[in-house]
Amino acid sequence: MRYCINCCIHLLPNDLHRQCFRCRGPNHNNQKCPVCKGENKIPLYTDSKQMKLLAVLEVRTDHSESWNGFFCLRKGKLCSLIFGLIIMTLVMASYILTGAKHGLLLIPSPFHYGAFTSNPSLMDNESLSDMKDHYQPSKMNISYVKDYPSIKLIIDTITSKIEFITRQRPDLEELRKQEPHMFSVIPNKFLPNSKNPCWYEEYRGNTTTDPYATNSYALYSKRFRTIFDYLRKVFWNHLYHYKDKHYRLRCLPHFYIIGQPKCGTTDLYDRLRLHPDVRFSAIKEPHWWTRKRFGIIRLRDGFHDRYPVEDYLDLFDLAAHQIQGVLQSEAAKERGKMNNIIIGEASASTMWDNNAWIFFYDNSTEGEPPFLIQDFIHAFQPNAKLIIMLRDPVERLYSDYLYFASANKSVEDFHEKVAESLQLFENCMLDYSLRACVYNNTLNNAMPVRLQVGLYVVYLLDWLTVFDKDQILVLRLEDHASNVKYTMHMVFQFLDLGPLSEKQEALITKSPASNTRRPEDRSLGPMLPTTKAILRDFYRPFNTKLAQVLFDDAFLWKRT
What we know:
Strand order of the largest sheet: 7-8-6-9-10
Distance between the termini: 101 Å
Protein backbone atom coordinates (compact mmCIF):
# COMPACT_ATOMS: atom_id res chain seq x y z
CA MET A 1 0.00 0.00 0.00
CA ARG A 2 1.28 3.46 -0.84
CA TYR A 3 1.22 6.40 1.55
CA CYS A 4 2.48 9.95 1.47
CA ILE A 5 5.02 10.28 4.25
CA ASN A 6 4.63 14.10 4.20
CA CYS A 7 1.09 14.03 5.55
CA CYS A 8 1.37 10.95 7.74
CA ILE A 9 4.33 11.59 9.96
CA HIS A 10 3.54 8.67 12.15
CA LEU A 11 2.81 5.53 10.09
CA LEU A 12 -0.77 4.58 10.66
CA PRO A 13 -2.98 1.60 9.72
CA ASN A 14 -4.86 1.72 6.40
CA ASP A 15 -8.19 2.62 7.83
CA LEU A 16 -6.75 5.57 9.68
CA HIS A 17 -4.76 6.81 6.76
CA ARG A 18 -7.90 7.27 4.69
CA GLN A 19 -8.95 9.93 7.14
CA CYS A 20 -5.90 12.03 6.43
CA PHE A 21 -6.89 15.52 5.30
CA ARG A 22 -4.24 15.59 2.52
CA CYS A 23 -4.26 12.02 1.12
CA ARG A 24 -7.23 10.19 -0.37
CA GLY A 25 -6.67 6.53 0.06
CA PRO A 26 -4.47 3.99 -1.69
CA ASN A 27 -4.73 5.67 -5.10
CA HIS A 28 -2.90 8.80 -3.93
CA ASN A 29 -0.35 10.09 -6.44
CA ASN A 30 2.03 12.75 -5.17
CA GLN A 31 2.61 14.00 -8.73
CA LYS A 32 -1.08 14.79 -9.09
CA CYS A 33 -1.72 15.80 -5.52
CA PRO A 34 -2.00 19.64 -5.41
CA VAL A 35 -0.34 19.63 -2.02
CA CYS A 36 2.48 17.22 -2.74
CA LYS A 37 3.12 18.18 -6.37
CA GLY A 38 6.63 19.45 -6.96
CA GLU A 39 7.74 19.01 -3.36
CA ASN A 40 9.86 15.93 -3.99
CA LYS A 41 8.07 13.69 -1.54
CA ILE A 42 9.49 10.24 -0.92
CA PRO A 43 6.88 7.43 -0.90
CA LEU A 44 7.20 4.59 1.54
CA TYR A 45 5.72 1.08 0.83
CA THR A 46 4.49 -1.06 3.64
CA ASP A 47 1.97 -3.79 4.10
CA SER A 48 -1.40 -3.55 5.72
CA LYS A 49 -0.21 -4.87 9.04
CA GLN A 50 -0.04 -2.63 11.99
CA MET A 51 3.59 -1.64 12.68
CA LYS A 52 5.43 -0.50 15.79
CA LEU A 53 6.20 3.18 15.43
CA LEU A 54 9.69 2.90 16.96
CA ALA A 55 10.62 0.21 14.47
CA VAL A 56 10.17 2.47 11.48
CA LEU A 57 12.74 4.95 10.25
CA GLU A 58 11.14 8.09 8.94
CA VAL A 59 12.91 9.44 5.89
CA ARG A 60 12.04 12.72 4.23
CA THR A 61 13.33 15.95 2.80
CA ASP A 62 11.58 19.12 3.91
CA HIS A 63 12.85 22.28 2.22
CA SER A 64 10.34 24.44 4.01
CA GLU A 65 11.79 23.54 7.36
CA SER A 66 15.34 24.22 6.15
CA TRP A 67 14.26 27.64 4.98
CA ASN A 68 12.61 28.25 8.34
CA GLY A 69 15.91 27.35 10.03
CA PHE A 70 17.75 29.71 7.73
CA PHE A 71 15.45 32.59 8.59
CA CYS A 72 15.77 31.78 12.32
CA LEU A 73 19.55 31.87 11.94
CA ARG A 74 19.37 35.23 10.23
CA LYS A 75 17.13 36.58 12.96
CA GLY A 76 19.59 35.35 15.63
CA LYS A 77 22.53 37.03 13.94
CA LEU A 78 20.56 40.24 13.52
CA CYS A 79 19.60 40.26 17.21
CA SER A 80 23.23 39.64 18.20
CA LEU A 81 24.39 42.50 15.97
CA ILE A 82 21.83 44.90 17.43
CA PHE A 83 22.73 43.85 20.97
CA GLY A 84 26.44 44.37 20.27
CA LEU A 85 25.80 47.86 18.86
CA ILE A 86 23.82 48.80 21.97
CA ILE A 87 26.63 47.63 24.26
CA MET A 88 29.25 49.51 22.23
CA THR A 89 27.13 52.68 22.30
CA LEU A 90 26.78 52.45 26.07
CA VAL A 91 30.54 51.95 26.54
CA MET A 92 31.37 54.93 24.33
CA ALA A 93 28.83 57.10 26.09
CA SER A 94 30.32 56.15 29.44
CA TYR A 95 33.83 56.97 28.20
CA ILE A 96 32.82 60.35 26.82
CA LEU A 97 30.86 61.31 29.91
CA THR A 98 33.74 60.26 32.17
CA GLY A 99 36.18 62.28 30.12
CA ALA A 100 33.93 65.33 30.19
CA LYS A 101 33.61 65.03 33.95
CA HIS A 102 37.37 65.33 34.36
CA GLY A 103 37.71 68.07 31.78
CA LEU A 104 39.35 65.76 29.26
CA LEU A 105 38.86 65.48 25.53
CA LEU A 106 39.50 62.53 23.33
CA ILE A 107 42.52 63.93 21.52
CA PRO A 108 44.20 61.67 18.98
CA SER A 109 47.94 61.71 19.07
CA PRO A 110 49.65 62.70 15.83
CA PHE A 111 52.71 60.58 16.68
CA HIS A 112 53.81 57.35 15.07
CA TYR A 113 56.57 55.21 16.42
CA GLY A 114 59.74 53.61 15.24
CA ALA A 115 61.54 50.61 16.63
CA PHE A 116 63.22 50.85 20.02
CA THR A 117 65.79 48.91 21.95
CA SER A 118 65.92 48.10 25.64
CA ASN A 119 68.69 49.16 27.96
CA PRO A 120 68.47 47.66 31.45
CA SER A 121 71.51 49.53 32.71
CA LEU A 122 69.81 52.93 32.85
CA MET A 123 69.18 54.05 36.44
CA ASP A 124 67.91 57.18 38.14
CA ASN A 125 71.24 57.92 39.76
CA GLU A 126 73.29 57.41 36.61
CA SER A 127 75.61 60.17 35.49
CA LEU A 128 73.66 61.25 32.49
CA SER A 129 76.34 63.60 31.24
CA ASP A 130 78.74 60.65 30.86
CA MET A 131 76.21 58.34 29.21
CA LYS A 132 76.89 56.92 25.82
CA ASP A 133 74.19 56.95 23.22
CA HIS A 134 71.86 54.07 24.15
CA TYR A 135 69.78 54.35 21.02
CA GLN A 136 70.22 52.20 17.97
CA PRO A 137 69.09 53.28 14.53
CA SER A 138 65.33 53.01 14.29
CA LYS A 139 63.09 52.87 11.27
CA MET A 140 60.76 55.82 11.27
CA ASN A 141 57.20 55.49 10.12
CA ILE A 142 56.76 57.70 7.08
CA SER A 143 53.44 59.01 8.38
CA TYR A 144 55.17 60.11 11.58
CA VAL A 145 57.61 62.22 9.60
CA LYS A 146 54.65 63.91 7.93
CA ASP A 147 52.87 64.56 11.24
CA TYR A 148 55.87 65.82 13.20
CA PRO A 149 55.55 69.47 12.02
CA SER A 150 52.09 69.69 13.60
CA ILE A 151 53.58 68.80 17.00
CA LYS A 152 56.36 71.31 16.44
CA LEU A 153 53.66 73.91 15.91
CA ILE A 154 52.22 73.10 19.35
CA ILE A 155 55.62 73.58 20.97
CA ASP A 156 56.25 76.77 18.99
CA THR A 157 52.91 78.14 20.15
CA ILE A 158 53.80 77.41 23.78
CA THR A 159 57.23 78.99 23.37
CA SER A 160 55.74 82.15 21.85
CA LYS A 161 53.50 82.58 24.89
CA ILE A 162 56.25 82.25 27.53
CA GLU A 163 56.71 85.32 29.70
CA PHE A 164 58.65 85.31 32.97
CA ILE A 165 56.81 87.97 34.94
CA THR A 166 57.76 88.68 38.56
CA ARG A 167 54.89 87.93 40.92
CA GLN A 168 53.60 90.36 43.49
CA ARG A 169 54.59 89.31 46.99
CA PRO A 170 51.64 89.32 49.45
CA ASP A 171 51.67 91.36 52.64
CA LEU A 172 52.23 89.68 56.00
CA GLU A 173 48.80 90.77 57.22
CA GLU A 174 47.16 89.07 54.25
CA LEU A 175 48.94 85.85 55.19
CA ARG A 176 47.75 86.16 58.80
CA LYS A 177 44.16 86.43 57.66
CA GLN A 178 44.49 83.23 55.66
CA GLU A 179 46.11 81.13 58.41
CA PRO A 180 45.33 82.70 61.82
CA HIS A 181 45.78 79.46 63.78
CA MET A 182 49.23 78.83 62.33
CA PHE A 183 50.36 82.29 63.33
CA SER A 184 48.99 81.79 66.85
CA VAL A 185 51.07 78.62 67.34
CA ILE A 186 54.44 79.51 65.77
CA PRO A 187 56.22 82.44 67.47
CA ASN A 188 58.14 85.13 65.60
CA LYS A 189 61.28 84.59 67.71
CA PHE A 190 63.22 81.44 68.56
CA LEU A 191 65.73 80.38 71.24
CA PRO A 192 68.95 82.38 70.83
CA ASN A 193 71.22 79.51 71.92
CA SER A 194 70.04 77.06 69.28
CA LYS A 195 71.15 77.00 65.67
CA ASN A 196 67.84 75.30 64.82
CA PRO A 197 64.61 77.32 65.18
CA CYS A 198 63.06 76.07 68.47
CA TRP A 199 60.91 77.46 71.30
CA TYR A 200 59.26 76.30 74.51
CA GLU A 201 55.50 75.81 74.50
CA GLU A 202 53.39 75.32 77.62
CA TYR A 203 51.82 71.88 77.89
CA ARG A 204 48.45 71.87 79.65
CA GLY A 205 47.75 68.14 79.64
CA ASN A 206 48.11 65.78 82.59
CA THR A 207 49.86 62.45 83.05
CA THR A 208 46.87 60.52 81.71
CA THR A 209 46.58 62.61 78.58
CA ASP A 210 47.85 61.14 75.30
CA PRO A 211 49.70 64.02 73.59
CA TYR A 212 49.45 62.29 70.19
CA ALA A 213 45.87 61.00 70.43
CA THR A 214 44.58 63.29 67.68
CA ASN A 215 47.67 63.41 65.47
CA SER A 216 46.46 62.86 61.92
CA TYR A 217 49.71 61.31 60.75
CA ALA A 218 49.29 58.58 63.37
CA LEU A 219 45.58 58.13 62.67
CA TYR A 220 45.77 57.83 58.89
CA SER A 221 48.97 55.82 58.49
CA LYS A 222 49.73 52.54 60.25
CA ARG A 223 53.45 52.66 59.46
CA PHE A 224 53.92 55.78 61.61
CA ARG A 225 52.17 54.41 64.68
CA THR A 226 55.32 52.69 65.97
CA ILE A 227 57.09 56.04 66.02
CA PHE A 228 54.28 57.66 67.97
CA ASP A 229 54.09 54.73 70.39
CA TYR A 230 57.72 55.39 71.28
CA LEU A 231 57.12 59.14 71.60
CA ARG A 232 54.28 58.48 74.04
CA LYS A 233 56.57 56.44 76.28
CA VAL A 234 59.29 59.09 76.51
CA PHE A 235 57.11 62.20 76.32
CA TRP A 236 56.93 62.98 80.04
CA ASN A 237 60.67 62.47 80.47
CA HIS A 238 61.34 65.40 78.16
CA LEU A 239 59.01 68.00 79.63
CA TYR A 240 60.66 71.04 81.12
CA HIS A 241 59.30 72.05 84.53
CA TYR A 242 59.35 75.71 85.51
CA LYS A 243 57.24 77.44 88.18
CA ASP A 244 54.70 74.65 88.49
CA LYS A 245 54.17 74.53 84.75
CA HIS A 246 55.16 72.03 82.10
CA TYR A 247 56.82 73.06 78.86
CA ARG A 248 57.74 71.07 75.76
CA LEU A 249 60.37 72.03 73.23
CA ARG A 250 58.96 72.69 69.78
CA CYS A 251 61.08 72.96 66.63
CA LEU A 252 60.77 73.72 62.94
CA PRO A 253 63.30 72.57 60.32
CA HIS A 254 66.44 74.60 59.82
CA PHE A 255 66.57 73.56 56.17
CA TYR A 256 64.24 72.08 53.57
CA ILE A 257 65.03 69.82 50.62
CA ILE A 258 62.22 71.18 48.50
CA GLY A 259 62.60 69.36 45.19
CA GLN A 260 62.34 67.97 42.69
CA PRO A 261 60.77 64.50 42.56
CA LYS A 262 62.85 61.84 40.76
CA CYS A 263 65.92 64.06 40.96
CA GLY A 264 67.89 62.29 43.68
CA THR A 265 66.35 63.89 46.78
CA THR A 266 66.03 60.50 48.51
CA ASP A 267 69.70 59.76 48.04
CA LEU A 268 70.65 63.20 49.36
CA TYR A 269 68.35 62.68 52.36
CA ASP A 270 69.83 59.26 53.16
CA ARG A 271 73.38 60.62 53.09
CA LEU A 272 72.66 63.80 55.04
CA ARG A 273 71.00 62.01 57.94
CA LEU A 274 74.26 60.13 58.52
CA HIS A 275 75.89 63.40 59.59
CA PRO A 276 76.16 63.55 63.41
CA ASP A 277 74.73 67.08 63.54
CA VAL A 278 71.74 66.51 61.24
CA ARG A 279 68.31 65.19 62.18
CA PHE A 280 65.19 64.83 60.07
CA SER A 281 61.48 64.67 60.66
CA ALA A 282 60.08 61.30 61.77
CA ILE A 283 58.71 60.97 58.21
CA LYS A 284 60.91 61.71 55.20
CA GLU A 285 58.18 63.49 53.24
CA PRO A 286 55.39 64.89 55.44
CA HIS A 287 54.02 66.99 52.54
CA TRP A 288 52.44 69.21 55.15
CA TRP A 289 52.99 72.61 53.57
CA THR A 290 51.65 71.50 50.20
CA ARG A 291 48.95 68.91 50.96
CA LYS A 292 48.27 67.78 54.52
CA ARG A 293 47.45 71.22 55.90
CA PHE A 294 44.70 71.36 53.29
CA GLY A 295 43.42 67.89 54.16
CA ILE A 296 44.84 66.18 51.08
CA ILE A 297 46.11 62.66 51.68
CA ARG A 298 45.75 61.45 48.10
CA LEU A 299 44.35 63.74 45.45
CA ARG A 300 42.16 60.99 44.03
CA ASP A 301 40.54 60.52 47.47
CA GLY A 302 39.38 64.11 47.81
CA PHE A 303 39.72 66.16 50.98
CA HIS A 304 39.89 64.99 54.58
CA ASP A 305 40.13 66.98 57.79
CA ARG A 306 42.96 69.49 57.62
CA TYR A 307 46.11 68.56 59.52
CA PRO A 308 46.77 71.32 62.09
CA VAL A 309 50.26 72.74 62.47
CA GLU A 310 50.61 70.91 65.81
CA ASP A 311 50.53 67.59 63.96
CA TYR A 312 53.39 68.78 61.78
CA LEU A 313 55.44 69.95 64.76
CA ASP A 314 54.98 66.54 66.42
CA LEU A 315 57.08 65.03 63.64
CA PHE A 316 60.14 66.87 64.96
CA ASP A 317 59.76 65.78 68.59
CA LEU A 318 62.45 63.09 68.36
CA ALA A 319 64.97 65.68 67.17
CA ALA A 320 63.66 68.23 69.68
CA HIS A 321 64.39 65.79 72.53
CA GLN A 322 68.03 65.58 71.46
CA ILE A 323 68.32 69.33 71.10
CA GLN A 324 66.78 69.76 74.53
CA GLY A 325 69.37 67.36 75.94
CA VAL A 326 72.12 69.60 74.59
CA LEU A 327 70.51 72.80 75.89
CA GLN A 328 69.98 71.42 79.39
CA SER A 329 73.38 69.78 79.77
CA GLU A 330 75.67 71.10 82.47
CA ALA A 331 78.22 72.26 79.91
CA ALA A 332 75.58 74.30 78.11
CA LYS A 333 74.36 75.90 81.31
CA GLU A 334 77.85 76.83 82.51
CA ARG A 335 79.48 77.91 79.29
CA GLY A 336 76.46 79.00 77.30
CA LYS A 337 77.11 76.23 74.79
CA MET A 338 75.33 76.61 71.50
CA ASN A 339 73.22 73.78 70.10
CA ASN A 340 74.56 72.85 66.66
CA ILE A 341 72.09 70.10 65.86
CA ILE A 342 69.91 71.08 62.93
CA ILE A 343 66.71 69.53 61.59
CA GLY A 344 65.83 68.97 57.96
CA GLU A 345 62.64 68.18 56.07
CA ALA A 346 62.64 66.54 52.64
CA SER A 347 59.20 66.77 51.02
CA ALA A 348 59.97 66.88 47.30
CA SER A 349 56.59 68.53 46.63
CA THR A 350 57.43 71.74 48.51
CA MET A 351 58.99 73.54 45.55
CA TRP A 352 56.24 73.04 43.00
CA ASP A 353 52.94 71.71 44.40
CA ASN A 354 50.45 74.53 44.95
CA ASN A 355 47.47 72.66 43.53
CA ALA A 356 45.25 73.16 46.59
CA TRP A 357 45.21 76.96 46.56
CA ILE A 358 42.15 77.23 44.31
CA PHE A 359 39.99 75.43 46.90
CA PHE A 360 40.99 77.57 49.89
CA TYR A 361 42.10 81.00 48.71
CA ASP A 362 40.10 83.55 46.79
CA ASN A 363 40.75 83.21 43.10
CA SER A 364 42.49 86.02 41.29
CA THR A 365 41.23 87.49 38.03
CA GLU A 366 44.28 86.23 36.14
CA GLY A 367 43.90 82.67 37.43
CA GLU A 368 47.16 82.87 39.40
CA PRO A 369 47.38 81.84 43.07
CA PRO A 370 47.44 84.83 45.43
CA PHE A 371 49.52 82.90 47.99
CA LEU A 372 52.22 80.27 47.55
CA ILE A 373 53.90 77.84 49.96
CA GLN A 374 57.06 79.93 50.18
CA ASP A 375 55.10 82.97 51.37
CA PHE A 376 54.12 81.16 54.58
CA ILE A 377 57.49 79.48 55.16
CA HIS A 378 59.24 82.83 54.82
CA ALA A 379 56.73 84.49 57.17
CA PHE A 380 57.81 82.14 59.97
CA GLN A 381 61.39 81.41 58.94
CA PRO A 382 62.94 84.23 56.96
CA ASN A 383 66.38 82.67 57.51
CA ALA A 384 65.49 79.16 56.38
CA LYS A 385 67.86 77.38 54.00
CA LEU A 386 66.58 75.57 50.91
CA ILE A 387 68.21 72.79 48.90
CA ILE A 388 67.06 71.91 45.39
CA MET A 389 68.24 68.90 43.42
CA LEU A 390 67.49 68.97 39.70
CA ARG A 391 68.17 66.77 36.70
CA ASP A 392 67.63 66.94 32.96
CA PRO A 393 63.85 67.56 32.82
CA VAL A 394 63.49 65.20 29.85
CA GLU A 395 64.96 62.27 31.78
CA ARG A 396 63.13 63.33 34.94
CA LEU A 397 59.78 63.09 33.18
CA TYR A 398 60.48 59.58 31.90
CA SER A 399 61.65 58.45 35.34
CA ASP A 400 58.55 59.99 36.86
CA TYR A 401 56.35 58.09 34.40
CA LEU A 402 58.05 54.78 35.12
CA TYR A 403 57.74 55.27 38.86
CA PHE A 404 54.12 56.38 39.07
CA ALA A 405 52.45 54.61 36.13
CA SER A 406 50.68 51.55 37.48
CA ALA A 407 50.06 49.40 34.42
CA ASN A 408 50.66 49.03 30.67
CA LYS A 409 53.93 50.91 30.83
CA SER A 410 55.80 51.15 27.54
CA VAL A 411 57.80 53.67 25.57
CA GLU A 412 54.88 53.97 23.16
CA ASP A 413 52.45 54.69 25.97
CA PHE A 414 54.82 57.33 27.35
CA HIS A 415 54.99 58.86 23.88
CA GLU A 416 51.20 59.09 23.69
CA LYS A 417 50.95 60.65 27.13
CA VAL A 418 53.56 63.28 26.26
CA ALA A 419 51.58 64.20 23.14
CA GLU A 420 48.32 64.56 25.07
CA SER A 421 49.98 66.61 27.82
CA LEU A 422 51.56 69.01 25.33
CA GLN A 423 48.20 69.62 23.67
CA LEU A 424 46.52 70.30 27.01
CA PHE A 425 49.31 72.65 28.06
CA GLU A 426 49.04 74.54 24.77
CA ASN A 427 45.28 74.96 25.25
CA CYS A 428 45.91 76.54 28.64
CA MET A 429 48.67 78.84 27.38
CA LEU A 430 46.37 80.24 24.71
CA ASP A 431 44.12 81.71 27.41
CA TYR A 432 46.22 82.12 30.56
CA SER A 433 49.65 83.19 31.73
CA LEU A 434 52.53 80.78 32.22
CA ARG A 435 52.24 80.95 36.02
CA ALA A 436 48.48 80.36 35.90
CA CYS A 437 48.98 77.22 33.81
CA VAL A 438 51.83 75.89 35.93
CA TYR A 439 49.73 76.18 39.10
CA ASN A 440 46.46 75.17 37.45
CA ASN A 441 44.99 72.28 39.46
CA THR A 442 42.59 71.16 36.71
CA LEU A 443 45.30 71.11 34.06
CA ASN A 444 47.82 69.35 36.28
CA ASN A 445 45.34 66.61 37.12
CA ALA A 446 44.32 66.22 33.48
CA MET A 447 47.79 65.84 31.98
CA PRO A 448 48.76 62.15 31.75
CA VAL A 449 52.39 63.01 32.62
CA ARG A 450 53.65 65.82 34.87
CA LEU A 451 55.25 68.12 32.33
CA GLN A 452 54.96 71.08 34.68
CA VAL A 453 57.30 69.64 37.32
CA GLY A 454 60.23 70.06 34.92
CA LEU A 455 59.64 73.80 34.46
CA TYR A 456 62.21 74.46 37.19
CA VAL A 457 62.87 78.09 36.50
CA VAL A 458 59.21 79.10 36.93
CA TYR A 459 59.21 77.77 40.49
CA LEU A 460 62.70 79.00 41.29
CA LEU A 461 61.87 82.57 40.28
CA ASP A 462 58.82 82.51 42.54
CA TRP A 463 60.92 81.29 45.47
CA LEU A 464 63.43 84.06 44.77
CA THR A 465 60.69 86.64 45.23
CA VAL A 466 60.70 85.88 48.99
CA PHE A 467 64.11 84.27 49.72
CA ASP A 468 67.57 85.60 48.93
CA LYS A 469 69.67 83.75 46.41
CA ASP A 470 72.32 82.81 48.98
CA GLN A 471 69.63 80.93 50.95
CA ILE A 472 69.05 78.50 48.08
CA LEU A 473 71.49 75.81 46.97
CA VAL A 474 70.74 74.32 43.55
CA LEU A 475 72.44 71.04 42.65
CA ARG A 476 72.36 68.76 39.62
CA LEU A 477 71.78 65.03 39.92
CA GLU A 478 74.24 64.45 37.09
CA ASP A 479 77.03 66.09 39.16
CA HIS A 480 75.96 64.26 42.30
CA ALA A 481 76.01 60.88 40.54
CA SER A 482 79.48 61.44 39.09
CA ASN A 483 81.07 62.95 42.23
CA VAL A 484 79.11 62.34 45.43
CA LYS A 485 81.92 63.60 47.64
CA TYR A 486 82.01 66.98 45.91
CA THR A 487 78.28 67.62 46.11
CA MET A 488 78.08 66.51 49.74
CA HIS A 489 80.87 68.91 50.64
CA MET A 490 78.89 71.68 48.96
CA VAL A 491 75.87 70.78 51.09
CA PHE A 492 77.92 70.62 54.31
CA GLN A 493 79.39 74.03 53.58
CA PHE A 494 75.98 75.49 52.70
CA LEU A 495 74.51 74.25 56.00
CA ASP A 496 77.61 75.34 57.92
CA LEU A 497 78.15 71.89 59.38
CA GLY A 498 81.22 70.95 61.37
CA PRO A 499 84.13 68.88 60.07
CA LEU A 500 83.91 65.10 59.82
CA SER A 501 86.40 62.35 60.49
CA GLU A 502 87.59 60.27 57.56
CA LYS A 503 85.47 57.36 58.76
CA GLN A 504 82.33 59.51 58.99
CA GLU A 505 82.93 61.05 55.58
CA ALA A 506 83.51 57.67 53.97
CA LEU A 507 80.28 56.36 55.48
CA ILE A 508 78.36 59.26 53.94
CA THR A 509 79.99 59.43 50.53
CA LYS A 510 80.60 55.75 49.79
CA SER A 511 77.16 54.43 50.65
CA PRO A 512 75.29 52.87 47.69
CA ALA A 513 72.83 55.07 45.85
CA SER A 514 69.25 55.17 47.12
CA ASN A 515 65.97 54.82 45.24
CA THR A 516 67.39 53.63 41.93
CA ARG A 517 65.19 52.55 39.06
CA ARG A 518 63.37 49.26 39.56
CA PRO A 519 64.52 46.26 37.46
CA GLU A 520 61.13 45.88 35.80
CA ASP A 521 61.30 49.53 34.71
CA ARG A 522 64.88 49.28 33.47
CA SER A 523 63.81 46.45 31.17
CA LEU A 524 61.67 48.90 29.19
CA GLY A 525 64.78 50.71 28.05
CA PRO A 526 65.08 54.42 27.19
CA MET A 527 62.32 56.52 25.70
CA LEU A 528 61.88 56.74 21.93
CA PRO A 529 64.34 59.11 20.24
CA THR A 530 61.43 61.06 18.77
CA THR A 531 59.90 61.55 22.23
CA LYS A 532 63.22 62.79 23.52
CA ALA A 533 63.55 65.26 20.65
CA ILE A 534 60.07 66.64 21.27
CA LEU A 535 60.71 67.09 25.00
CA ARG A 536 64.06 68.73 24.28
CA ASP A 537 62.27 71.33 22.19
CA PHE A 538 59.64 71.90 24.86
CA TYR A 539 62.02 72.36 27.81
CA ARG A 540 64.73 74.30 25.94
CA PRO A 541 63.48 77.87 26.63
CA PHE A 542 62.96 77.08 30.31
CA ASN A 543 66.43 75.56 30.65
CA THR A 544 67.91 78.59 28.92
CA LYS A 545 66.30 80.92 31.44
CA LEU A 546 67.37 78.69 34.34
CA ALA A 547 71.00 78.79 33.19
CA GLN A 548 70.80 82.58 33.01
CA VAL A 549 69.36 82.88 36.53
CA LEU A 550 71.99 80.55 38.02
CA PHE A 551 74.87 81.78 35.80
CA ASP A 552 75.68 78.18 34.94
CA ASP A 553 75.39 76.69 31.45
CA ALA A 554 75.41 73.19 32.90
CA PHE A 555 71.68 73.66 33.49
CA LEU A 556 71.15 73.74 29.73
CA TRP A 557 71.68 69.96 29.78
CA LYS A 558 73.14 70.02 26.28
CA ARG A 559 75.39 67.00 26.75
CA THR A 560 72.71 64.62 28.05
